[in-house]
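Possible regression after last week's pipeline update?

I re-ran a chain I had predicted before the update to compare outputs. Posting the input and the new output here so someone can diff against the archived version. Not blocking, just want to make sure nothing changed silently.
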Amino acid sequence: MSTPVGDGLRLAVGTLSVLRVPPPRHVDRAVAGVAMTVAPGVGLVLALLVAVPVGVLAHLGSAPLLLAVLAVAGTAALTRALHLDGLADVADGLGSGRSGEAALRVMKKSDIGPFGVATLVLALLAQVAAVGTVLARDALLGAVALGVAVVAGRAVLPWLCTPAWPAARGDGLGATVAGVVTGLRATVAVVVALVVVAAVVGAAALTTDPDRWIVALGLGVLAGQVATYLLARRCRRRLGGVTGDVYGACVESAATVTLVVTALALG
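New output (post-update):
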């Protein structure tokens, strides 16, 4: 017999990753609420799948730049490049200079415009450069930083699905999950994700220069969440709310900014 929790877990994993799970038997707003609440947990699974092999290969002496490319490609593959697609669509919509329904029509087009292409290229370059930088500094902590960014990206979903962020249109993923997470649930989900991340970072940082790495990662996570909030607020103002593309763009933006600021803070 299906339950909101079981169906929500299956919906979260099936939507946010390529991992094969049985489809949910029933999807409603209660199920969607569970799915978006546990999104950081899916991020943790993805982080382990990407960061562990990258950390092992970095420890064995593999080239940091090559590993960075593989890490970014692996993350995209594990998510069907879903969030990258959303980032490109939002860039086209906002870059079009239009608002409301006109901008939403631009985002629904199947092709990618110049703003979308430029944003994708720059975002991927930034991710590769940042991952390569942190891996070159320390194999273990560089891999941890990569994992933290993956989790931080998915940690934006619970608070983006609170009632403060209405859907921009009446159909699609945005309409299904907008406002389905209560403020309390979102707070608990984000706090649990941060506690897990802090524990992993603290344990790993004991190996070398802990203060610098902890501060750098803390600044990275904070900057990623703030940048995502500003992007989401801009979308709410220009589009009238959030969409599935906006969720994807916010996930990708949070992860990218977390990595870049962490790398910059390390000097």
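Follow-up from reviewer: compared with the archived run. Residues 4-266 form one domain. Marking as no regression found.
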